[in-house]
Design goal:
Elements (H helix, E strand, L loop, with lengths): L9 E5 L6 H12 L7 E5 L6 H13 L6 E5 L6 H12 L7 E5 L6 H12 L7 E5 L7 H11 L5 E5 L12
Helix pairs in contact: 1-2, 2-3, 3-4, 4-5
Length: about 170
């Protein structure tokens, strides 16, 4: 039970390929929100069919973890859609202490609308010094990708927006 680990500051939780769905995602979120001392969090939730409601719930629970400085969130192939991606971004945008963000949203049907909304919400995180945002297979074209990069750029901030399915491969670009 995660809720019994209230004193931890670092958590790496790998739950990929478990078909949690939105209900399982909500149950996980109820436990995550109790980890108020956490500063470093890596969540691997790839291929869990969270949907837009699960993405929204995840964002809401993460936004309550006010001490997080480093967040790695791997949500590849969860069918968040534009609404779920925007809701997740809106909630992550509340993490004002965040300095490092790695966000894998490959294959989530975000579309250009979801990508823009995500960037808008994340752009105001003033302490953010490193952003890695992977958006391949989301129907986002190069023009919108460049717009997302511009929205995220700030002096002293490193921004990487990847549009490939596999980050290390040049042959699978969108």
């Amino acid at each position: 039970h995660l809720s019994k680990l209230q004193e931890i500051t670092t958590l790496l939780l790998w739950l990929q390929n478990n078909n949690l769905g939105s209900e399982g995602g909500k149950a996980l979120n109820e436990s995550l929100v109790k980890l108020q001392k956490i500063t470093n969090l890596e969540l691997v939730l790839q291929r869990n069919n969270l949907g837009s409601e699960g993405g929204k719930a995840l964002g809401e629970s993460l936004a309550k973890l006010e001490k997080i400085t480093t967040l790695e969130l791997y949500l590849y192939s969860n069918n968040l859609g534009p609404e779920g991606g925007s809701a997740l971004g809106e909630q992550l945008g509340k993490l004002q202490q965040l300095t490092t963000l790695v966000l894998d949203l490959i294959s989530n049907n975000l579309g250009s609308e979801g990508g823009r909304a995500l960037a808008d919400h994340l752009s105001d995180l003033v302490h953010l010094t490193e952003v890695k945002l992977w958006l391949g297979r989301n129907d986002i074209d190069d023009e919108v990708k460049a717009e997302i990069e511009r929205r995220l750029q700030r002096p002293g901030r490193t921004v990487e927006v990847g549009m490939r399915f596999f980050v290390e491969s040049d042959s699978d670009s969108e």
